What we know:
Layout: H1 4-31, E1 39-44, H2 48-61, E2 65-70, H3 73-81, E3 87-90, E4 97-100, H4 106-122, E5 128-131, H5 144-166, H6 172-197, H7 205-230, H8 234-244, H9 246-249, H10 261-266, H11 271-284, H12 290-328, H13 345-364
Parallel strand pairs: 1-2, 1-3, 4-5
Antiparallel strand pairs: 3-4
Helix pairs in contact: 1-8, 5-6, 5-7, 5-8, 5-13, 6-7, 7-8, 7-11, 7-12, 11-12
Amino acid sequence: MRSPALRHVLTHLVTPLLMCIGMGLAYMGAFVTPEPHHLPVAIVGSGPQAKVFAQTVKDTAGDRLDVRTVPTRADAVGLLKSREVTGAYVPGAKAPELMVATAASDMGATAVEKVFTPVAAKEGAPLKVTDVAAPVADDPTGQGLFFLLIALSIGSYASVAALGAGGAVLAMRVRALLALGVSAVVSGIGALLAGPVFHLAHHDLAGVWGMAWLYSAGILLIGVGLHTFLKRWTTLTMMVLFVMLNFTSSGGLFRPELQNGFFGTLHAFWNGAGFVEGVRSLLYFDGDGLASDVWTLVVWLLVGLAATGLAALYERPRRARHAAAAAGSTPAPGTTAGSPEPVAEPDADRAAREAEEEVEETVGV
């Protein structure tokens, strides 16, 4: 290709086009056709009659449901509040009841209601739906936490370009400290949005902030570390890790039981799922399962620290060579101001231009 400018533009178009493909595959693959896959439900009752009824429901639903029986309604409520089941059905000729926990998943509650409405119709009575864990009135669908996740993610991965490219002249330990500081600011913004602004969190706002900090710091440290090795491809990598795979597996819109096996598997250990499920545990389920979600975020933070550590080791010899080259280019004593000196200004200008382009590309995305 003869035109350097045209080649430059086409090279930079590769990233958004790959993002287009990746976002389409991820979002449409995760969200377009939600179907129950082994959705856990409970039938309340004891004795042979309850077991026969549960087996009938299972035979009718096939692989869509995993059905168990529990002896009492209180047992079923306990399973719902520990999020071991998505719905619990209480058979009754006069008033069949379905219990759900919409704070765990509004879409999951809707899915089990669709399953058991025709079951109740066969008993000749309308279905009564009881919500044992409803979200706050300011977040009636419980999906506000998913949008909070998006805000925290964008603030975190977009800051990577400024720290990685714009701060490339700084030592890695300085960039790492800046990443921790930026994560505190990003998580503080998230806490303001979750609390005073949109009232998603009516209590334990400090805990929400703490999990937001762990989440943001992990992303920033991973991004700063990866930038040493990937340079301008860091933006695309961060989008894959913390948008395409992260939002789709977080459980913020659909729980893993309503997704295919790939995204359901990611939900078990990805950082977005750790944040969303952790905040749900804190706000709606008395901290049940919170420790596991916090450990998920801590592990991602440790991965970020490891990435920055490896990047620092990789950069150390290069910085030593640059320092030696700079010392060798110092003019000897007696050299006049007009004497020609070796300068690296064109390389510096090119590096600065590439860094600026990377920042603009990331923020634009």
